[in-house]
Each structure stands twice: as C-alpha cells, then as structure tokens.
Amino acid sequence: MILTALLPRHMGELAAYLTQTTYSVRRNPSSNRNGTAPWDKFWCDLYATVRANKLDTSAGNGVRIPSATLESLRRQLAALPFVNYGKFAKEATGVSDGLIRRNLFLSSDEPVSMRSSSVSHEAYVDPSDDYLIRTLMEAYASTDVRGYGSRLRRLRRDCLYCSLSRAHELRKRFSVRKRGDRLSELFHDRLSHGGRAILLRVLALRS
Predict the structure, then answer these.
(1) pLDDT mean across residues, the chain
(2) 54 and which of 60, 156, 161, 205 could share a cystine (Cβ 3.0–4.6 Å)?
C-alpha cells in the first residue's frame, strides 16, 4: 500500500491515480482512454505507464517506475484544468486528506449526510448499511444526470468523512461483488464503473 501522506501532494495524488488505473486494468484488461483533451491524454498515459511497467501483472509487484516517467505525469497532473493541484508547490506535503477535500467531484456547498456535532469539534457518524442501501436504491430517470450526480457526491462525502475502520470495511466489501451481501451487490449493480472507481479511490485514501 502506498502511504500517500508521506509523499508530496502531487506525487501522492499521482500515486492514487496510478493505483486506480492499475485496479481498472486488472479488473478489465482492455480498459483504456482515448482522446486529445488534457484529461484524456493524462488517463491514456496512466494506462500506458501501468502496462509498460507490468503493474497489471504479478511481474509488476515492487517495480520502480522511472523518475522521468513520474515527473512527466506529475507535470500533466498539475496542468490539468478544473483542479487545484497546480496551486501547490512541487514539494508541498499532506495529500492524504487535503486535495481530496478540494476534489472537483465534491461541491463545497453540499451538506454531509448523517452529521452530528460535539462541543469541541464536528464529528461525522459512520454511514450505516441501511442508509447506504437506501441511497443506492434511489431511482432516477436515465436522463436525470443531476440526480445521479447528486447521489454520487453524497456517497463520496460519506466515504470521505467516515471513520478509518469503516472506510477499511467498506473498501473490502466494495472491492468485488459479494453475492449475499446486499450492500456490495447494490454498489456494483446501481453505480457506473466510473462511480465505483471514484468511491473506491476515496476509501483507499481514507483506509
């Protein structure tokens, strides 16, 4: 496991993207991203890096990616539109809980589900199975992009603010579809591949 909290912000975030891409390729060997837009180019290079270093196979376990390759990807990441990575110095640290809170997928004005407070600090109650199941069961019209987006943002925030132990548990349950586990089944049946990948990434950074 990559300890992103010990890495500079850019490199920690890049490590998370590489981890997500590796998972995607191991799950679906034909996964790829095409296009000429900055985000498309970045994802295409991530997939190429994973395959070039055999990260999608056991031969890639423990491999060291060339520093020139990582620096090229880091520069792309810092220059991507609609993100804040470029505002941080190359040497800035503390990625594990900082950049994810400024993620373009998490709107700052959206309330956190199931929130409670204490005198000394604000605490967040772990999302229960029942709550997550109800959220995943919400039905939207196929054209209701805002509805799907709002649900995914709520789930992201719940995953972001849950306790470390709950994040570890959910990540384990969500990593593969477990028959008989209603929550795991709904996670895979009711969310898109991209939505699942984003939530798993948030949980991976938390756990």
Answers:
(1) 77
(2) 60
Helix, coil or strand: residue 88: coil
At residue 200's C-alpha, the angle toward residues 189 and 140, to 5°, is 40
Q: What is the pTM of this model?
A: 0.45
CA atoms of 186 and 201, how far apart (whole Å): 18
Residue of 86, 2, 4 lying closest to 38 (CA atoms): 86
User: Is the predicted pLDDT of residue 51 greater than 90, yes or no?
Assistant: yes
pLDDT (tens digit per residue) in 147-194: 888 899 899 988 888 888 899 999 999 999 999 999 999 999 999 888
Helices (H) and strands (E) in the chain, counts: 8, 2
The single-letter code of the amino acid at 101 is: R
pLDDT tens digits, 102-119? 443 444 444 444 433 333
d(CA 172, CA 155): 16
12 touches 5 (CB < 8 A): yes
The tokens for 35 are 């296009």
Instruction: DSSP for 116-174, please give it.
Output: EE-SSSEEEPPPPHHHHHHHHH----TT-HHHHHHHHHHHHHHHHHS-HHHHHHHHHHH
Contacts of 187 (CB under 8 A, 6+ apart): 136, 173, 174, 177, 196, 199
